[in-house]
């Protein structure tokens, strides 16, 4: 690896309390057939969708630290929220159940007519659900505090996890992922020029930027926003990365202008499949046997295809795409579509 150093020589997140949910590194694999179909440089994929706990996905990485912290503080109830089909809520429900904690999930909107996808899995893992009755996603933020106060008034000990798991500990889980990928790259002999990922709540990219800085790795870290305008996403990522650095005792800050996030690939809106994403989803399935999800990774990889076609990446580069999971979204309301 170019100009890299072991994470433990700088700031070791392994010293933080951690609930072991990921028993081994997830695969780092070449996807040449998909790369050829999409065009652009040599393409590799980090398969965090294959994390074996809680239906997988890289939200589990942050939860190893978040749930451990909840246990350390003596909490008996985890309170978090997002949309009904949230990967974060599903993974949190699984981790809370595993740790013996009560879980309350606060969703925006109203209860759907059908219990499916991540919502079904969250309930299966014992999550108690509440709905804000508002379509505004930020209504969850207000409701989380209200729910925590209610639980406390009833004698409970709530631990609030921000919407999407976007907090310092959540981001630090992805700092550990950087060290994991560094070791895998050294073992396989690849030297990525760029690491690309979907950006929603921002915790994953914040952790990758911080981890890459701490380890002195010179690959570019880039994101494709799938949730909100890139300007807002950059601000969130920068703030989370700075907060995570402070939690690790590092005097380092990140400015929004130093965060590279590509816009223009959200389509009709967050959580709504796009034609471009559906096309790439089918290519990944048919060329590599890899299942992307329509909300995050399919849109991000569709963004990559458009950016590569526009000359963003050189043919002689190596690009690593982070598959962050989300397969349960494939089993939701797919009328007539493959």
Automatic annotation (TrEMBL):
Needed co-factor(s): pyridoxal 5'-phosphate
Family of this protein: Belongs to the ACC deaminase/D-cysteine desulfhydrase family.
Gene that specifies this protein: dcyD
Swiss-Prot/TrEMBL keywords: Pyridoxal phosphate
Modified residues (N6-(pyridoxal phosphate)lysine): 59
Active-site residues (renumbered): 86 (nucleophile)
Highest taxon of source: Bacteria
All copies of domain Tryptophan synthase beta chain-like PALP, residue ranges: 23-325
Pfam families, per database record: PALP
InterPro entries: ACCD_DCysDesulf (IPR027278), TrpB-like_PALP (IPR001926), TrpB-like_PALP_sf (IPR036052)
GO molecular function: D-cysteine desulfhydrase activity
Protein name stated in the entry: D-cysteine desulfhydrase
